[in-house]
Write a structure and sequence with these properties.
Elements lengths: L1 H19 L8 H9 L3 H9 L4 H5 L2 H22 L4 H6 L3 H16 L1 H19 L8 H19 L18
Helix pairs in contact: 1-3, 1-9, 3-7, 7-8, 8-9
């Protein structure tokens, strides 16, 4: 069970690593710890699309706690409602997670060829894990991690973030 939880939640480490590249060097370690703790799929999607100091702003206050409270409350309500819903309806909700991930991926991919390339590469790699007999035996959780890490690493090597795209130091103006 612990290994399954690790595999399912490793994406948060990857998302935090990705966003940490945009942070100013003047941000304290304790602040980085809080930023990574409160990083959720929703905050990552919003922060990835923002420029300037929006990551620091988006992680503050209500926005920081909203996804955490919504996720916890939604889990509680979902667990309670699952026993009340017919089996067909409960199983239909399983597809909603895919819609959520599409909503997170599509907007940045529409605005960035690099992001679109990483998504396309990840899809292609995932397809190989389904079609090639030698790779079919790998669990779905590990396939997701392998594809995400490999495609992201290749994207970072081929299309690194330019120095001009860095986040401003304390006291610097943000570019419009």
């Amino acid at each position: 069970m612990a290994l399954t939880q690790f595999v399912v939640n490793i994406r948060y480490s990857l998302m935090s690593l990705s966003l940490s590249q945009k942070l100013s060097g003047s941000i304290r370690t304790i602040d980085r710890v809080f930023l990574s703790f409160f990083n959720t799929d929703e905050i990552f999607a919003m922060a990835s699309m923002q420029e300037g100091i929006a990551w620091a702003a988006s992680i503050s206050g209500a926005l920081r706690s909203s996804p955490t409270l919504a996720g916890t409350g939604g889990t509680l309500i979902g667990a309670a409602a699952a026993s009340l819903l017919p089996d067909r309806v409960a199983s239909a909700f399983g597809i909603a997670i895919y819609g959520m991930f599409l909503a997170i991926i599509v907007p940045p991919a529409k605005h960035s060829r690099a992001v679109l390339g990483v998504v396309a590469l990840s899809v292609a790699m995932s397809s190989l894990f389904q079609w090639l007999p030698a790779l079919k035996g790998i669990s779905a959780g590990f396939v997701i991690i392998i594809c995400a890490v490999a495609a992201s690493a290749l994207g970072a090597l081929l299309r690194p973030v330019e120095q001009e795209e860095r986040w401003p130091e304390a006291g610097e103006e943000c570019a419009p």
